[in-house]
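Entry:
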Amino acid sequence: MQDKREYILQKSFETFMAKGYDSCSMTVLQKELKIARGGMYRYFESKDALFRAVVDKYFWGMIDFISPYFSDDMTLLERIEQSNKSMKQIAQYIDQISGIEGVFLNYTALIIQAAKHYPGFIDRMKKRNENEYKRWIKSIENSIEKGEVRKDVNVKLIALIYIKAVDGSENMEGDKRCFKFSQTVDSTRKMMEYIYTLIKA
């Protein structure tokens, strides 16, 4: 039963990304997954319940997976290195399970749809972003204390720049139609490392 549920989640994830939330009725999902209607409702009572489960697994689940690898005592360079490593792991996973061209753009669209169709998603994202902002500030301050970063930098502004870099929305290089997560991770890594060269002591 667990394998069947996981199959439904993965294929629904791909279908939601390819077609969008509004175009995915339970009938469409049933046909795409080649599962009888009763089989779908056995695991998920509605499209909304299935969509929330997809977001929980392929968005919040990814965040929960990488969170233990970060700590408040990290320096900026350590946080950059761990961010790059974590993003690469997520990118490889998403690229591997999805046969969709332009997967990064489709995944971004899925998260935007979650803001509309997943109750409480926006508030949860705001809280997460606030916490991330504080952690970047702490890492920059740690690096200043260790003499790795200049004392005259605007800590809060640099933290915001790093959050924007991790966001990835500004890092769209090349042909957007076949854009892969691995491409945006490489672009993000270059940006983060370059910013560090500008502020290091």
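The chain has nine helices and no strands.
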